[in-house]
Amino acid sequence: MKAIVVHQYGGPEVLKFEDYPDPVPGQGEVLVRVAATSVNPLDYKRRAGLMKDLAPIQFPGIIGTDISGTAIKIGPEVEGFSVGDRVFAMADSTYAELCAVKAAILAKVPDGLDLIQAAALPLVTITGSQLMSATAIKAGQTVLVVGAAGNVGRSAVFTAKQRGATVMAGVLKRQMEEAKSVGADQVVATDDDTAIANLAPLDAVADTVGGRIAEKLIAKVKPGGVYTSVVQVPQNAATYPAVKVVHVFSKFDRKTLEFMAEAVRDGKLVIPISQKLPLGDASEAQAEAEKGAVGKILLVA
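Now predict its structure.
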């Protein structure tokens, strides 16, 4: 098969499109012919060596997290999947034409959802949903989603609205107009100190950005409230012992992925796709993503 192979840590130029041995599905695995994968910050941070303590690459190796495609071979002791099934997942080594995926982390693409579009969804929708779930937000409460214009943020906003919460979308001033489409009740500029100072006390904050704004926003959470983050937690968290701080690491959840994918199919949740590039253009795709490209970039195998 052809794959994007990494032989050393470095910039986008270390992503090489070359021949690589076909994976063989082992016990409990499904061999998937990849339709598409997507570019996530996790992918280019791994390529750059920024995550080698948590997720090292075994050189020569393949990176990639999201996958959508078609099951072409079923390994031993797999139940619930058949050859020909349209599937998607948060997996590993997905920048390739073929990928062996554990059936336990595989889901079927809902009818009516485009198979290539499905590759944009696993990591960001699961992460956004779990970020919001960690706040334990309830109907009638108010939550601020930081980075709401991003794909994880959009997914968090959607999840909070499903729970009946009042949702504030926290974005940069230049994103204010774009943020009106994410489904929040209000939009707040997180780079406007006056707007932050004027915020009423919040029941929760769900953070996808981190940095200095986190230190300001934790001060706006009510005693007994919750601050969740998929990046670093506020460095001044110890100053607010009455606020529960949760660092969220996304974990595969089939029901969540299927629910979020159905929402995308039905137009209730929008995960923008900015580009669809051939798999062989992975270096270009990651370079664009690192510049802050708006929307998901898909790699079509």
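The chain has a mean pLDDT of 97.
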